[in-house]
Amino acid sequence: MQMPLVLDGVAIAAEIKAEVAIEAGEMIARGVRPGLAVILVGSVAASEMYVRSKVKTCGELGLFSEMLTPPESVTTDELLRMVAELNARAEIDGILIQLPLPAHVDTKRLLEAVSPEKDVDGFHPVNVGRLQSGQPGLQPCTPAGVMEMLRRREIAVAGANAVVIGRSEIVGKPMAMLLLNASATVTVCHSRTRDLARFTREADVLVAAIGRPGFVTAEMVRPGAVLIDVGINRVTDAASVQRFFPHDAGRAAAFQKRGSVVVGDIDPAAFALSSAYTPVPGGVGALTIAMLMSNTVKAAKLRRGA
Ligand code: GUN
């Protein structure tokens, strides 16, 4: 069997960002700088890291960015006022509310308050509806990144059996819809699916977005399938490191040093059977910010008629 193609998310993200920088440069030359506002509530370490990375990438590509950092105690009403101000400001093209929000905040109401034209996450019901009905609009960054990756590496999905494991609003559902719109035959599996392997073994393209380390094992995968791993799970026990990376001295050393390593939702042993796969880290995760930048420029163009 041929060696699988590694779908290098870092390299593909670099391609996308280079194109976004050119588009942004052309807009800036015409006096329009695309701008992104990010709302980060409280101080969750992982969220802070993601948001800093988003803001930094804006700077690298020439986009204007602004970070709003209300405290954990902020109310839904205060956040709604913030969003209303951002909706009204001409220089803001994209609004991103970093999730998850504290339990006392009405997340649904807040996401619906973002103007659909500035909804660079693609979470507003109007954009969900546009995706569902195949109309152009802003699409969620992670699944849109997966489609972009497949397109750029010439992996055709029309007519393919695509199986998505996970039905979240952020990844699973929009992923299924994008694959369907691209003429794949789509099956969505989830925690209540009976005999999951029966479905996954039929997959030409298998997308795992469940958040459980190494959940998809080699026995569940059809040889030659394309494996897309959306999971980013931190494992902190030696037994898991040994199970997932039995011959990986680099991972073992990293575990010794940091006490954890990152594993996707697909057991790395399954990758060897595939025709192409996304590594973790350095696969799908690397694309999400690039797609956010792309969505911000897209929003700027749509809204400003450029
Ligand atoms: N938290 C984890 N993923 C995401 C995402 O795609 N968008 C937002 N806003 N928050 C997230």
* Largest sheet report: 6 strands, parallel
Heteromolecules bound: guanine
Query: What is the global morphology?
Result: globular
Give the averaged pLDDT, no decimals.
97
Strand content: 5-15%
In terms of per-residue confidence, which ranges show pLDDT below 50 for 5 or more consecutive residues? Answer: none
CATH homologous superfamily of the largest domain, by name? NAD(P)-binding Rossmann-like Domain
The helix count comes to 12
Number of domains: 2
What would you say the CATH architecture of the largest domain is? 3-Layer(aba) Sandwich
- What sequence of helices (H) and strands (E) makes up the elements? EHEHEHEHHHEHEHEEEHHEHEH
CATH class call of the largest domain: Alpha Beta
The count of DSSP E runs of length 2 or more, i.e. the number of strands, is 11
User: What structural class do you assign from the helix and strand content?
Assistant: alpha/beta
What gyration radius follows from the Cα positions, in whole Å? 20 Å
Biggest sheet, spatial arrangement of strands: 1-11-8-7-5-6
**Share of residues in helices:** 40-55%
N-C termini distance: 49 Å
Under CATH, the topology of the largest domain can be stated as: Rossmann fold
